[in-house]
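Re: that backbone. Tokens:
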């Protein structure tokens, strides 16, 4: 069973590195291309990790090793976006993504949220299958990803 706490800045930087490794593995971005994620994130989070309506979690295993991260964002009164869930490569395929997903959905429900939404790359089959298993349904489609929603 995983434990979690509010993310700190060092962990946020690690989460962003993990995010862009995932993006590169599922897209045409080359290692030589630079992504100005710090500039983009500053626009989304003017108050950093304290930006209103944003929830950042770091998840740990029983040895206190970081397993993964989650970032959720309130979009409407009763709707929360799962902006990111990531599990470090060495911990993948062990059920941790599912546990993180369930935890952030439980937190949202405790906060009075009744719908969760997320986007998943069309070619990220393991994540897509996980979300279907957890009751998310495809609500829309964009060029490279599906928009999925779940009633809590």
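Recovered sequence:
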């Amino acid at each position: 069973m995983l434990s979690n706490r509010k993310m700190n800045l060092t962990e946020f930087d690690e989460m962003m590195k993990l995010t862009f490794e995932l993006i590169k593995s599922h897209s045409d971005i080359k290692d030589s291309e630079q992504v100005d994620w710090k500039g983009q994130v500053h626009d989304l989070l003017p108050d950093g990790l304290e930006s209103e309506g944003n929830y950042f979690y770091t998840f740990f295993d029983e040895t206190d090793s970081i397993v993964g991260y989650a970032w959720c964002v309130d979009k409407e009164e009763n709707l929360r976006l799962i902006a990111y869930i990531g599990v470090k490569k060495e911990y993948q395929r062990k059920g941790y993504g599912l546990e993180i997903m369930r935890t952030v959905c439980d937190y949202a429900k405790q906060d009075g949220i009744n719908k969760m939404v997320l986007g998943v790359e069309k070619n990220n089959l393991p994540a897509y299958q996980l979300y279907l298993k957890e009751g998310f349904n495809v609500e829309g489609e964009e060029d490279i990803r599906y928009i999925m929603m779940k009633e809590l």
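The chain has a mean pLDDT of 86. The helical segments are 9-25, 37-44, 96-110, 125-133.
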